[in-house]
Design a protein that fits this description.
The complex is a heterodimer of chains A (143) and B (546). Chain A has 143 residues and is α/β, with parallel strands linked by helices. Chain A has a single domain, classed as Rossmann fold, CATH 3.40.50.280. Helix content of chain A is 45%, strand content 17%. By secondary structure, chain B is of the alpha/beta class. In chain B, helix 10 packs across helix 16, helix 12 crosses helix 16 and helix 14 packs across helix 15. The chains are: A alpha/beta (143), B alpha/beta (546).
Chain lengths: 143, 546
């Protein structure tokens, strides 16, 4: 397991932008995650429903976020996530940790990782697991 | 009281004698005869007041004297994906496997009031349901399926009035008179603000559309259920059982009040209101919830809204097993969860049932998975004997105590909604969303802390079974549907389209019923997205506060 967050992170909290990408309104998961990450001491900006990839990237820029978490339960991830990753690269935001949550078939996981998605959390992922992953990732990048 | 009890029982016995009975034996697997109903041998005032006989007020034990001895519940699997032709093929497949009603899932652009060629529809066309843009798509969707013979449920909310117009036009073109149509439009916009987030117009204006469809169907399609007041999505979003129950019934009461305010008598429309509940994991609490729902609805409809017709007081409901209870880990185990949840729905007296497929945490279900889900219902209906008697758990100390407790919880929540300033004010203040989010979070914490155990997730885990086959949606669907829409747009009369949209705007600004204008627009191949945009010009668009 990763070491406890460094003092650096204790002074500067991890900033996380969360967005519902596309048209689907299933926001139970993302709302629960938002609250858990706040409870874990992170600064969470939930942009709300119906975000386009462009809007999500804008939010990452505006908020100077370390992490972008997008949630899709609509099956549109193989259309919207590639678009999102391309836009992040174009804006020079390659260092942002991108997480995907939702209903994602197993067969799409390698494709998403190849696109640069750091991790995919499907139903059954625990809140502590998600928070621990983010801490570890951000700490590794800062090191 | 003894006399009353005798009278009530005699009335039930008369109803039972008059009721039709399906062709079945009603004996156990060992040949023992099962009675249609078991009840106290001695007169019992508590029984009379709280339970009564099935088919009689307050309907705790069910809405029919003989329930499933008369007719089994309708096995209705929700289906839809791709183009109208692909969904038509799935419908025919389900009918050929013995399914008895149809249930239509629409894709997200349709649910959100967008056409397939809208930029925001990219990647979503035909993915979660069938893509429809015009009444022509409805002709294709039901080709070879006689709309006068099969009951069709349609899950659509914000643009429900427009989808109803498409359906009515499709029936008309099949030569089926509207008064023969049986089926259900979900058309429950209030729960979209609470939980599912598929709204377009502001709450008050959206409720007006619901009232227009209720009034129109009451007059022109009297066998059609114009609204299915839904707790399913509230529960899926994370509410407790009591919140699902109370929020749903409160939504129902709001529609009743608004429709009465529009000038209809309660008994004119209330018999056609129907409900849709979740059947979740907790077996006894779910059964109690269904029983409490019937009792609360009956009491309010009679005592608060003055319903005289017993049918206005009967809560009829569709149930669906719980989607969120399904797990991606060890997906075969989902078959077992679904079976218990289906059993709870049947013991709770549902009128129709959808059983989820084991693979729905991964994708839309494959035909094989859907078949197992349907077979689960068939085993329940024909092998287990649970359909032999009405409300077999009635009188159980535990089930009755839970039924009472859920009724009390619901009444307390109704009071809270009133304290918020009523339904619309409570929505605008975020009351429902806040409560649901709190409950969802509390539940997830329980699971994470292993105070609630989920097989395969936080207990009894293994690495097996992640590789079940999933349904792939062909990405050419979007292209094909857009081409078709372009063709329809090229073929239709542009002047008629403009006139139809102007009329929709004009009627929307008045207090007149919108349905005739929407139906005429559907006949002229005006698209769903165009009609929604015209309505939004007048009614506005809604953004939630939280």
């Amino acid at each position: 397991m990763p070491a406890v967050p460094s003092a650096k992170h204790a002074t500067k909290p991890i900033r996380v932008v969360l967005a519902k990408l596309g048209l689907d309104g299933h926001d139970r998961g993302i709302q629960v995650v938002a609250r858990a990450l706040r409870d874990a001491g992170m600064e969470v900006i939930y942009t709300g429903l119906w975000q386009s990839p462009a809007a999500a990237v804008r939010a990452v820029e505006d908020e100077d976020a370390d992490v972008l978490g997008v949630s899709l339960l609509s099956g549109a991830h193989m259309t919207l996530v590639p678009d999102l990753m391309k836009r992040l690269r174009e804006r020079g935001l390659d260092d942002v940790t991108v997480l995907v949550g939702g209903i994602i078939p197993e067969s799409d996981l390698p494709k998403l990782r190849e696109l640069g998605v750091a991790e995919v959390f499907t139903p059954g992922a625990s809140l502590d697991e998600i928070a621990a992953f983010i801490r570890q990732r951000v700490a590794a990048k800062a090191a | 009281m003894a006399t009353d009890t005798n009278t009530a029982r005699e009335a039930w016995e008369r109803a039972l004698a008059a009721a039709t009975t399906r062709d079945a034996q009603f004996t156990t697997v060992s040949g023992r005869k099962i009675e249609p109903l078991y009840y106290p041998a001695e007169p019992d005032p508590w029984y009379e007041e709280q339970l009564g006989y099935p088919g009689q007020f307050p309907f705790t034990r069910g809405i029919h004297a003989n329930l499933y001895r008369g007719k089994l519940w309708t096995m209705r699997q929700f289906a839809g994906f791709g183009t109208p032709e692909e969904t038509n093929a799935r419908f025919r497949f389900l009918l050929s496997k013995g399914q008895t009603g149809l249930s239509t899932a629409f894709d997200l652009p349709t649910l959100m009031g967008l056409d397939s060629d809208h930029p925001n529809s990219q990647g979503e066309v035909g993915r979660l349901g069938v893509a429809v843009d015009t009444a022509r798509d409805f002709d294709r969707l039901f080709e070879g399926i006689n709309l006068g013979e099969v009951s069709v449920s349609m899950t659509i909310n914000a643009p429900a009035a427009i989808v109803l117009a498409f359906y009515l036009v499709a029936a008309e073109r099949q030569g089926v008179p509207w008064d023969q149509l049986r089926g259900t439009l979900q058309n429950d916009i209030l729960k979209e603000y609470h939980a599912q987030n598929e709204f377009v117009f502001p709450p008050q204006e959206s409720v007006r559309l619901v009232v227009d469809t209720i009034a129109f169907c009451t007059e022109h399609a009297p066998q059609f259920n114009p609204v299915s007041i839904s707790g399913y999505h509230i529960r899926e979003a994370g509410s407790t059982a009591a919140e699902e129950l109370a929020f749903t019934l409160a939504d129902g009461f709001h529609y009743v009040e608004q429709t009465m305010e529009a000038g209809l008598g309660v008994d004119e429309f209330a018999p056609r209101l129907s409900f849709f509940f979740n059947s979740h994991n907790d077996f006894f609490e779910e059964i109690a919830k269904f029983r409490a729902a019937r009792r609360i609805w009956a009491r309010h409809m009679r005592d608060k809204y003055g319903a005289q017709n017993p049918r206005s007081c009967m809560l009829r409901f569709h149930a669906q097993t719980s989607g969120v209870s399904l797990q991606a880990q060890q997906p075969e185990v989902n078959v077992i969860r679904v079976a218990y949840q289906a059993l709870a729905a049947v013991l709770g007296g549902c009128q129709s049932l959808h059983t989820n497929s084991r693979d729905e945490t991964l994708s839309l279900p494959t035909e094989e998975a859907v078949t197992i889900a349907l077979r689960t219902q068939q085993v329940l209906a024909y092998e287990t004997g649970v359909a032999n008697s009405v409300d077999p758990l009635g009188g159980s100390y535990q089930v009755e105590a839970l039924t009472d407790a859920l009724e009390q919880d619901a009444e307390a929540i109704f009071t809270e909604i009133q304290e918020q300033g009523g339904m619309i004010a409570a929505i605008e203040k975020g009351y429902f969303r806040r409560r649901i989010a709190e409950s969802a979070f509390a539940y997830q914490r329980e699971v994470d802390a292993k105070r609630k155990l989920i097989v395969g997730v936080n207990a009894f885990t293994d690495d097996s079974g992640l590789n079940v086959p999933t349904l792939e949606i062909d990405s050419s669907v979007e292209v094909r549907q857009r081409q078709r829409l372009a063709q329809t747009k090229a073929e239709r009369d542009a002047a008629t389209v403009e006139m139809s949209l102007d009329r929709i705007r004009k009627v929307a600004a008045s207090r007149e019923n919108l349905m005739p204008a929407l139906i005429d627009a559907a006949r002229a191949d005006v698209t769903l997205g165009e009609m929604v945009a015209a309505l939004a010009d007048v009614l506005g668009r809604y953004r939630p506060t939280s």
